[in-house]
# Entry
Amino acid sequence: MQVEIFVPCFIDQLYPQTAFNMIKVLERAGCGVHYNTNQTCCGQPAFNAGFANEAREVGTKFINDFEGTDCIVGPSASCVGFVRNYYPGLFENGTLHNRVKGLGKRMYEFSEFLIDVLKVENFNATLNAKATYHDSCSGLREIKIKSGPRKLLSHVKGLELIEMNDTETCCGFGGTFSVKYEPISLAMADQKVKNAMATGAEYIISTDMSCLMQIQGYINKNHYNLKTLHLADVLASGWE
# Structure
């Protein structure tokens, strides 16, 4: 299967290794992976900040960049959820409306694609550690991801996955929410990190790097002995 990958802005700029690990996992599953170097943003930051016209402009480029592809896979439920759930309204009654409907059906979040499309769960990864899983708001509520990532993690050799309390509660990031409402955002991050540490976990794993960026920032600020990992980084670990 030929796959086009979408690499979100913040992963491209701050966590490129996660994108490379996603490619490694997809190739191990037998996919041919293509990356369109013209791609930029999906438009979500502008939309969330209230700039619909600017988001539409960026979204139009996104639609054109991924025209004609069979499957688009991204390591961010937030971005995938935005394209699927908000593009139809953003481009409603416009000339791109029908193309948007087709785009949403071809776009998948990374773990969703592995489980639901490729139907592959075991990548012979190894991570000798205790970890807990964070359900991101976008993954859980917009893409309906819950059991898939846990199935993938259950096959990682040496990994003990322990559920934390309130795993479905927001980490406090929410894009500009963390800037506009910093005290609330920090309190939510504190709750998330404290619940994770209570399990004895060494790692917090999630499908959304934006959540993990928020969580890791709070961990670093308070010098806690805890690390974050994207699911792609875990599935690509321990290979010989």
Remarks:
- Residues 121-235 form a domain with the Rossmann fold fold (CATH 3.40.50.11810).
- The chain has 13 helices and eight strands.
- Residues 182-198 form the longest helix (17 residues).
